[in-house]
Amino acid sequence: MFMSRYMPCSECGASVERSALDSHSCDPGRRLDYQMFGLREEIAGFEGRFQSYLRGPRGQFDMWMAAQEVRRTL
Domain coordinates of the chain in residue numbers? Predict the structure, then answer.
């Protein structure tokens, strides 16, 4: 079986040569992109869950309270 010389970094997803895995340091921007990619389904579903929450009794109350707070600070 063929083994690649490269492995993906578990923190940032970068392709790193196996011999350099121990000395690899992740780029912060790449790490953030990789984490966001892993959360893409959760992020995509957020809007629907938020809208459902706002239609429910707790969401309605929270919207009412927010409006009261805005009126009080004006």
Answer: 1-38, 46-74
For the chain, the farthest-separated pair of C-alpha atoms sits apart, in whole angstroms, at 70
Angle at CA of residue 41, ends 37 and 48, nearest 5°: 135
* Residues paired with residue 8 on neighbouring β-strands, in sequence order: 15
List the chain pLDDT tens, one digit each, 74 residues.
Answer: 678 899 999 999 999 999 998 899 999 999 999 999 999 999 999 999 999 999 999 999 999 999 999 999 88
**What are the C-alpha distances in Å from 31 to residues 6, 46, 49?**
18, 22, 27
pTM for the model stands at 0.60
Does residue 3 contact residue 17 with C-beta atoms inside 8 Å? no
d(CA 62, CA 36) in angstroms, rounded, equals 28
